Amino acid sequence: MIYLRLLIFFTLVSVLSLHSQDVVVMSGTYVSAGSGVVVKMGSLNVSSGATVVIGSGAKFELFSDLTNSGTMTCDVNSNFEFVGGFQVITGSVNFGNLNKSGGGSIVLNSPITVSGVLSIQSGKIYLGANDLTVLGSIGTYSPVNSIVQNGTGRLIRRVVGTGDFVFPISVLVGSNEYYRGVKVTFTTAPSSGNLSVYFNGVNPGTSGLPLDDGGVQIVNVWSGGYWSVEPSGGLSGGVYDIEIEAHGFSGTSDPTRLRVLKRSSGGSWTLQGTHVAGGGTPTEVVVRRAGLSGFSEFGIGGTIFDFISAYLAVGFTVSDIYVETGATGNIAYIRLDWNDGNPGKTHGVWGWSFDVTSSVVTITDVTLAPSISTAFSINKTPIPNGIRVLIYGNSASVILKDQGNSVAQYVVARVHFDSPGSDGDYLNAISLVNNTVSDAVIRDASLLTLSSMPAGDGTINLNVHSSSLFIEQPPSFLPSGYSDWRKYGDINWDGGIDIADITGLADVVIENWGAVTVNDPNGSRPFYEGDGYNGTDADNSDRTSADVETGDGVIDQMDLATLQDAVIDVTWPSYAIPAIAGKPAYKFYGDDDTVKGFATLKKINDGILHVDFEIFNPGDKGSIIRVRLSNSVDVKGVQISLKVKALPNFERLKFDVTPLLPVSGFKVAFGKNELGYLVILIYSDVGKLIKRGDRQGIVTISIPGIDVEKLWALQPDVKLSVRNLSYNASIDVRDANYIEIPKSYMLYQNYPNPFNPGTRIEFDVPEFSNVKLIVWNSLGQRVRELVNGQVDPARHVVYWDGKDESGVRVSSGVYFVTMYARSLEDEKREFTMTRKMILMK
Q: Looking at the structure, do residues 315 and 443 belong to the same domain, yes or no?
């Protein structure tokens, strides 16, 4: 440690080398360094009352900290250099020229000013809560060697005349530092003054969007932050260009599409001036704009593709399919996956194209999936060994949307093909090609404009496994007076046996004959209405088909139970009539009424008959499937079939099915049959209906280890009984875990609280439950019911606007919100909790 207590004048070129020593300038001393003098020292500590003067041409090199509690005067032509290491400046200093070299960093504990040139040859300057003001110019710098904004401190520059004024700022984002520099080039000089730049690392919002910039639609703002550029010290007027450089950017594939947006503090975004092509890379963008005036806040705006981690893929739902050798009419399903990576924006897929080709099987047709057939159209062109397909929305408002935070999966098309002529495993038998770029289109519904993007490949090759199957034909009989055979149990005489026959027989048992339509070859009619056999051909035919348990002429609940077991097990039970006992109830593979290897589409889906399979905890031993029904017509029954033999060790797997509302009171029967299918039946034997609804939870299915791909491999099939006729539902399979499922019930404190005029109320529901959320006043009087009904497992948010049931605003005071919940999965599990809220006007 060296203490300087003497007056030092350097009149000749000389070097005072103390770089391994710490120097303390004591109170009452005067240290002066003149032109040509170089002073090297470890640290410099100027005590209170001491004075240090650095004259023109002098240079101080510090290898450690600078602490100024006294007076430091630096000529504008003096030089102060911090060399290497971790160095701290404490106490305000007005430097002449300031240089950082040798790596390391300078940390400001106080604001400083540079009257001359600031250069950062290597290393960084951390502002903390302190401003760094540059009255001269900024020399050497780079995105690596920059001024780091790690607090509320700002970089301030003096602006005089025209030319470039650079603000080389970096910011801390988590544990990373990213360059967020600004360059302002005045083309018309303002009045002299200062500009300060500060980067705000919060989402600036999209107020004022969309904007049209010469035909380019700006629909979003980079959520990573925005720049505050503020004048002071009398700066006003002038015209300038601006360049913003943002490293650590994400979302764009083309930086030249980005635009500089401008707004008054916190207001709506505008497009002042003229766009100038930017550049850089998708992660280090440079965005420019010319002809601006006035200062405030700047952000980066983009088109529909920017700031979107978009994912679009087209492929088969499964990679393997099993068919009967020589069979015709097999079906493979094509799925589209879509996520725009931007929750809250109505982006979607409007059209796409692909080629379906095969040199192994004969592709006979490609058709739209029922779930999109009313909203989309299809164009098909024959090509060698296949079909070229274009699918597009019927209007500009038709799109397939994502799931918010996660990928939405749509079955969009069906490939119809004939099986190979011989047994074998045919790898890559059917391929999807050219499913990219030109016709894979996304758009923003608010703009009604179309834009193209590449489509990634999903499962684009389908393996076909072909084998000869010899399954006994289901038993049938020739009714007296007819030339057409009829299967036992085929109540509606449509050629197959399924849920529609079960609900039809249930209606017969309760003597609701008129509700059962029989597709009699001689003309459709209601099921024969009468007691006992009366000798007519129609009566004998109907009763023979329905009397499957004893053949005693009485149709009752035992016949219904026999038919139920037959549909689940594929085989008639041993207690059925001798003509059918132990024989197949229906041929699963290949007669005129079933498509070999797949379920039949017997009836057109006339309306919204759609089923969602949502998987919670996919791949986990506790994974379950929620089955949701959307139906625009009343449904009498549901039949779900899953090919569980596609699962590893399926013989040892245990399955469980739990009914949910709105099927409370319905029969739910299920079983695993000899063909390796899990069949679930939901129906009422007392004439109840599943009323029209959207995404109604009907059952949960417990299948350990199931995930989206495995469920598609189970070839899910859902038949619905509508008016006792069989209809196929369209199907989607998705991962339900795009929201975190809470572990327990909870009612959270409202926010804000106190509030005026409204407040948010959040609550957790861990499983399907009936929930009520009621607001009370301090007298215990009910004010408003916010929730009453079935609620899915999730965290939910409701907003109370401070009004009662009549829509009248309530007065200031104390209110209470109570949550009542009862589990639909375990009726013994209940929850009640109350929170206090304060309305203050």
A: yes
